[in-house]
Amino acid sequence: MPSRNPIALAGALALAAGCGxxxxxxxxxxxxxxxxxxxxxxxxxxxxxxxxxxxLYDHGGRPRDTLGLGVLRNPGRVQFVNGDAYVSDVxxxxxxxxxxxxxxxxxxxxxxxxxxGAHQFAVLxxxxxxxxxxxxxxxxxxxxxxxxxxxxxxxxKPSLIVGADGGVLHAIPDKTITLYN
Length: 181
What we know:
Blueprint: H1 6-18, E1 30-31, E2 34-35, E3 37-39, E4 43-48, E5 53-58, E6 63-67, E7 78-81, E8 84-91, E9 94-100, E10 106-111, E11 121-123, E12 129-132, E13 137-142, E14 145-151, E15 160-164, E16 167-172, E17 176-180
Antiparallel strand pairs: 1-2, 3-4, 4-5, 5-6, 7-8, 8-9, 9-10, 11-12, 12-13, 13-14, 15-16, 16-17
């Protein structure tokens, strides 16, 4: 009968137990053609224009809650910063950002009348918004203040603006990608 090393056997059993298949999780980048936003470590958010809300899912892909139902009309993007949800929306053809607090209540609405559109924006850590103007500038909006964040090249296709770790990523399809810190 072969001898067994109890320490090696215990180590092998512990290793086998630790190598089990991870639980099935869903961590999409896009869902139903909409950009997905992480909400902490346990949820992700997807704008849903049909019901006019943002749907919060767990990583198993199960809906857990909604945000903005009855307030939003055509949500396009959502970004979470310091517990607040910034959601792009269009009402009667006018772009705006609706800010929801942790409790789901509307904290403020930010009209974006002079911008290239509502669905491309970034939120800086101080709560300022960065949006693209119609004349080729990234604008920094904070309260009633509007300042040029950076002059940018204007493309023939809509650009992408995303908050990136305290900075802003600006991409013009088929042309450039620039990270502003």
